[in-house]
Specification:
single chain, 65 residues, mainly alpha, 62% helix, 0% strand
Length: 65
Amino acid sequence: MTKKSMIIRGIGIIIGAIAGYLYYFYVGCASGTCAITSKPLNSTLYGALMGGLIFNIFVKSPKRF
């Protein structure tokens, strides 16, 4: 794992966490029965996970011969 790939994944996690919290704040769950969006911690962690996975697409893997 190179330093560049770690930075890209880290940026994805941070952006995802911010997006997850903003989703909780502006959309959220009025009834409190939603598993992900009922609490800010759940929404933030889920956003961080999704951001890390999405930004992982942009990391180039080494070619194997």
